[in-house]
Automatic annotation (TrEMBL):
The entry's keywords: Sigma factor, Transcription, Transcription regulation
Species this protein is from: Rurimicrobium arvi
NCBIfam families: Sig70_bacteroi1, sigma70-ECF
Signal sequence range: none
Residue ranges constituting the RNA polymerase sigma factor 70 region 4 type domain according to the UniProt record: 116-167
Protein name according to UniProt: RNA polymerase sigma-70 factor
Source domain of life: Bacteria
Length: 189
């Protein structure tokens, strides 16, 4: 059973199709997400996010294959991103524990110093590279969204992000564990 996402019928028909699609796929997508994440609430949140994005993009979204395969692929990608985020948070926790109390004076000084060094490192990046990095990490845009906004290819965004991260790692080598926690999270477009 396939449901049109951007049907030319009236808004009521589109809403009814969307609601039917939600009812038809939610439970199975939730079960699929749970097998990956092993967390009921997080699985539910992931599936709801996928449906929210689908609804928000319904007028411009072009699904090449079936809606079912699109939904499962979206849930899979979002689950992988969540798992990566868990690993980054865990690495930061271990780093923070190894460094001592986060409330200590030394940590506060390190964080302020990191902010200063981060600002300096950002200033040293080439303009396009800096813009792409800021859109990705500070505005939380996916590579495809950055490419569309800037009128460049996704491949260019990927290359520029790689360059930015490489240069930032060099500039912030002393703060690498904290830098990794704050900024290094792979985005799948």
């Amino acid at each position: 059973m396939d449901y049109p996402v951007n049907a030319s019928a009236g808004a009521v028909d589109v809403e009814m199709n969307f609601e039917g699609m939600f009812r038809a796929y939610f439970k199975s997508l939730h079960a699929y997400a749970y097998t990956i994440l092993k967390d009921e609430d997080e699985a539910e949140e992931i599936v709801q996010q996928v449906f929210c994005r689908l609804w928000e993009r319904r007028s411009s979204l072009q699904i090449v294959h079936s809606i079912q395969s699109y939904l499962y692929r979206s849930v899979y990608n979002d689950c992988l991103n969540a798992l990566k985020h868990h690993k980054v948070r865990q690495a930061h926790r271990q780093y923070a524990m190894a460094q001592g109390e986060p409330e200590s004076r030394g940590s506060a000084v390190s964080y302020k110093e990191l902010q200063l060094r981060l600002s300096d490192a950002l200033e040293k990046l080439p303009e396009q590279c800096r813009t792409i990095f800021q859109l990705s990490r500070f505005e939380d845009l996916k590579y495809r969204e950055i490419a569309d906004r800037m009128g460049i290819s996704v491949k260019t965004v990927e290359n520029q992000m790689g360059k930015a991260l490489r240069l930032m790692r060099i500039s912030l080598a002393d703060f690498l564990p904290l830098f990794l926690f704050l900024f290094i999270e792979t985005k799948i477009s």
